[in-house]
Design a protein that fits this description.
The protein is of the alpha/beta class. The chain is built from 13 helices and 17 strands. The protein folds into two domains: 387 residues, Inosine-uridine Nucleoside N-ribohydrolase, Chain A (Alpha-Beta Complex); 99 residues, Immunoglobulins (Immunoglobulin-like). An eight-stranded mixed sheet has the order 3-2-1-4-5-6-8-7. The protein has a four-stranded mixed sheet with strand order 12-17-16-14, with no helix packed on it. A three-stranded antiparallel sheet has the order 11-13-15, with no helix packed on it. The two termini are 30 Å apart. It comes from Dactylosporangium salmoneum.
């Protein structure tokens, strides 16, 4: 049975918390006109500072996912040691995650006032498992975490199942190896392996241990990998070298202090920034917290969320449809196909005119930061009316269209806003996501209605990606998009 790679075909049965109704009566995903089926995900992480910050953001967006597991793994940068032969290396312990869930519990009642589907703290605690943490690439031990991943991989829920690797892949590798050891002598093994390979999608951030190339790819050659080898750096420690100057304000101290660090509740009090004077116990080698270090960064400048792209590309409530196909691009970056699935690729940076491997991520920085800022407000706002919420965009003609060369298409956009805010409209062509090699001329691009003529040099099968942005005038200003894909007949 073929399981297509699209969030719209994820498991129909969400967990009991994912189906709960918030007090505003609509889930954020439903407000945005997206599929009500949430992506099934397992998060694995290694406890680095940027994992901690990514996990904080993840908790604010946890209502958008059907979370199947939160698993602690090691990496080449962080491991616990085995108490005998292997000494701990930059080990931050495993209790910080429980502490963050405790802090999430304090803002959970407020979050539920603004959107449905936030998982209960008890549910999150039940999903937290310790995996293979003793050493880098260690996958010999069967652990609680590996057995949990194995169980979810083998369940009867349809795919896809997204396994996100914020650290090493060793716990996931151990789970797959346990499945192989159990079933490889079974006559049905080829069918079992095929079904799993069609179901599981791994999102890999860098190669943080050797198990992807050493075990997973050789033994599971048809398993799909979304491989982010460099694009993530644009939302990580070296962001000043990657993010265009026009978008850097959303990562600088004044923005961070106003929207996250000051007066936004106990969970965001744990959010780490450059030179903030808050050491990370166990990771003495990471000196970025020290006020006398990294002087090119201001105190409270954004530090890193290098792992957040792995879940941001699944955030289809925004209307960008990036989970349908990683080549489309969205808040989690954009990818090109390769032998194993997808690899991070380039967009043309309009500032430099060059193909830029960071720009598929950095083009969205201001938007995704504003969206997070609104959710930060949700956590401290006990009334729906005390915070901003995303507008809703739609396109009368639909999102998947066909047109002939020379045909003129007119697209009618429409927006509404739950807070009664004023809306503005903008249409633009995402040329990097197109398979058509040229560009189209949009009329009325700054209005709700746009039109264009399919160019004469377009070939049958070419696709043209048009993005409608609807932006409110709330604080912070929020957007909802619609992606119209026009296929040339």
């Amino acid at each position: 049975m073929t399981l297509p790679l699209t969030a719209a075909t994820a498991a129909q049965a969400a967990n009991e918390d994912g189906n709960s109704q918030g007090q505003n009566g609509n889930s954020q995903g439903q407000n945005q006109g997206s599929s009500t089926t949430k992506p099934r995900i397992i998060v694995s992480q290694d406890g680095e500072v940027d994992d901690m910050d990514s996990f904080i953001r993840f908790l604010y967006y946890s209502n958008e996912f059907d979370i199947q597991g939160i698993v602690y793994s090691s990496s080449r940068y962080h491991y616990a040691g085995d108490g005998v032969n292997v000494q701990p290396f930059r080990w931050t312990g495993t209790e910080w995650l429980n502490h963050y869930i405790d802090l999430y519990e304090q803002i959970y009642p407020n979050l539920r006032k603004h959107a449905d589907g936030y998982p209960s703290p008890e549910k999150l605690r039940s999903l937290y498992k310790i995996g293979n943490i003793d050493n880098v690439s260690e996958m010999d031990k069967v652990t609680e975490g590996s057995e949990w991943i194995k169980k979810v991989v083998l369940d009867n829920q349809p795919g896809p199942l997204y396994i996100q690797s914020w650290g090493g892949l060793n716990t996931t590798a151990r789970a797959l190896k346990s499945i192989q050891e159990q079933y490889q002598n079974d006559p049905k093994w080829p069918d079992i392996q095929r079904k799993i390979s069609q179901k599981v999608v791994i999102y890999n951030i860098l190669d943080q241990d050797s198990t992807l190339n050493g075990y997973i790819k050789p033994n599971w050659p048809d398993l799909k990998i979304v491989d982010n080898q460099s694009q993530f750096w644009s939302f990580a420690y070296l962001w000043t070298r990657q993010v265009p100057a026009a978008n850097q304000y959303a990562l600088k101290a004044p923005y961070m202090e106003q929207n996250f660090l000051n007066g936004h509740g106990p969970l965001l009090e744990q959010y780490r920034t450059y030179r903030d004077g808050k050491p990370t116990p166990g990771d003495d080698q990471n000196n970025r917290w020290r006020p006398d270090q990294n002087l090119t960064y201001g105190v409270h400048d954004f530090i890193s969320e290098g792992d957040s792209p792995s879940f941001m590309y699944l955030l289809d409530f925004n209307g960008l449809r990036s989970s349908e196909n990683p080549t489309y691009g969205g808040w989690g970056g954009r990818f090109a196909t390769n032998a194993s699935g997808w690899i991070d690729t380039t967009d043309v940076n309009p500032t430099t005119g060059a193909n830029d491997r960071a720009y598929p991520q950095t083009r969205w920085v201001a938007d995704l930061q504003n969206d997070f800022a609104a959710r930060a407000d949700w956590g401290v706002s006990s009334k729906y009316s005390d915070a901003n919420h995303n507008p809703t965009a739609s396109v009368r003609e639909g999102l998947n269209l066909q047109a002939k060369v020379g045909q003129t298409l007119t697209l009618h956009g429409r927006g509404s806003d739950p807070d009664g805010n004023k809306l503005t409209y903008r249409w633009w062509e995402y040329t990097d996501a197109d398979t058509y090699a040229g560009t189209v001329a949009l009329s009325g691009a700054d209005t709700a209605t746009t039109s264009f003529t399919v160019p004469a040099d377009a070939k049958p099968g070419d696709t043209i990606h048009l993005i409608l942005e609807v932006t409110d005038n709330g604080i912070p200003a929020l957007k909802h998009y619609q992606r119209v894909i026009v296929t040339v007949k």
